[in-house]
């Protein structure tokens, strides 16, 4: 045993029960690999899908997602997803890779993905960026006249009430005097 030389505290290594002169080899952190056989990790016959066919599966009872060019049928997982089925439904109809990565899923979540894998999507059919579609809102008020009137009334009505209170008070003071 070492008596703590080099630590500036004689006997410390003996008290801790360590051998200070022995260096431990530190292994770099490696993301755990999932040792799955090809039959376990992917569908037996992975299919190639066209993106337009994948986006049709956007309901609670039939939900497919595209993540990293792979198609996953997450219908059985809808009720068990920690974020709820709304999160999965919101990721349908597009490449959900960014949504999936932004959340920061655990290694366990990534390991579960193989159960839902059903094939690949033809990347040439996936739109690069979805075009913004302006929502059709029939109640939109372009001139905002009613909003302006409401704001004016919110200012004027309290002033009128305050003025009436002042008039009533001064009137009652004159009669009592």
UniProtKB/TrEMBL annotation:
* Annotated localization: Endoplasmic reticulum membrane; Microsome membrane
| Major localisation | endoplasmic reticulum
- The membrane-spanning stretches of this chain are 148-168
Locate the coiled-coil region(s) and give their ranges: none
Q: Which GO terms describe its molecular function?
A: heme binding; metal ion binding
What family name appears in the similarity comment?
Belongs to the cytochrome b5 family.
Protein name according to UniProt: Cytochrome b5 heme-binding domain-containing protein
Q: Which organism is it from?
A: Lactuca saligna (Willowleaf lettuce)
> Taxonomic lineage per UniProt?
Eukaryota, Viridiplantae, Streptophyta, Embryophyta, Tracheophyta
């Amino acid at each position: 045993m070492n008596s703590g030389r080099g630590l500036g505290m004689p006997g410390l290594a003996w008290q801790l029960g360590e051998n200070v002169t022995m260096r431990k080899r530190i292994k770099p952190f490696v993301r755990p690999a999932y040792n799955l056989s090809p039959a376990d990790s992917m569908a037996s016959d992975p299919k190639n899908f066209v993106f337009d066919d994948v986006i049709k599966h956007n309901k609670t009872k039939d939900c497919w997602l595209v993540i990293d060019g792979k198609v996953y049928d997450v219908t059985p997982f809808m009720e068990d997803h920690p974020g709820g089925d709304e999160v999965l439904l919101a990721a349908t109809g597009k490449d959900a890779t960014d949504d999936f990565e932004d959340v920061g899923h655990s290694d366990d979540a990534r390991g579960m993905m193989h159960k839902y894998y059903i094939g690949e999507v033809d990347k040439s059919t996936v739109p690069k960026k979805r075009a913004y579609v302006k929502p059709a809102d029939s109640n939109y008020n372009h001139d905002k006249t009613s909003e302006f009137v409401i704001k004016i009334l919110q200012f004027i009505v309290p002033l009128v009430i305050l003025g009436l209170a002042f008039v009533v008070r001064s009137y009652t003071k004159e009669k009592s005097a």
